[in-house]
Amino acid sequence: MSEVKQALVQAADAARFAPSIHNTQPWRWVVRADRLELFAVAERQLQAQDPDARMLLLSCGAALHHAQVALDAEGWAYSVDRPAALAPDAPLAVITPGERRPAEPEATRHLQMLRVRRTDRRTVGEEAVGETVLDELVKATEQSGARLHVLGRDQVLELAVAVEHAQSAETADDRAQAELAEWVGGERPEGTGIPSASLPVEVPLTTVAERDFQTAGTVTAGGGHDRAATYAVLYGPGDAEQDWLRAGESLSRLWLSATEHAVSLLPFSGPVEVPFAREALRRILGGTGMPYLAIRLGLQDPAHTAPPHTPRLAADQVIDVMEEG
Q: Between 86 and 90, where is the model more confident?
């Protein structure tokens, strides 16, 4: 196998650790001699909660950024083609490597954060994230095309109402609840979904309620509240397919930067999945953009040990290495 192709295989393998909606991992990579192609996997789309595939595309965008992080860490220059119009059975994006040069130390750190990053649904610590760090997170988000709007106190209360209404709507939807049960709880030996070991015993009592997965986990939620948490909305200029892919890249970049600064990040997709709740987020943004996710940021509670990583599909289930010629 050529050096270029080996690097592309390693990039696709690193992308397996990307975050995704309910850990569905809805992506497939095709490694060719001179390029890496990213495809969506419709069989792992949430049909009831994500009928328009927005969260699927956002998840694939996070995987796309993870692959770029791996190439950066090995010193590869590359270009990324994101077709403006997505055709059936066509790739969402294509990475084409160029020349190799010495890797930047920052790129190596980002790759390390890729393996450390995880979702923590427990309460955060009692110390707020500093303004300097928040500024760094905002800048990191903007490097991939989306933006991060940090909410003021009154806007946090508006977000809490939107989240509550979205939760009520999805709880009343039998199809959504049945789908949730397929992806959440238990030991998840098949390599997808959220296991009980990654869920709190009970939903923490916070101003902005976390998603109620309708199943008890095994992790102690923590005794604090969210008074020191910072809430924000990830948003961008458009609602097209490539906008959601870019949003996923921005989420990945933001999450890795947050991990590097020891900041816990928890995404809230519920208020984006329900149309009237998403409109509420648009009003919070003052109509300046399209909301992609609500996000909680906070310093980890020093009493908490790191939660376990969610399971991952095996490499041969998400990566196809093509024999050329």
A: 90
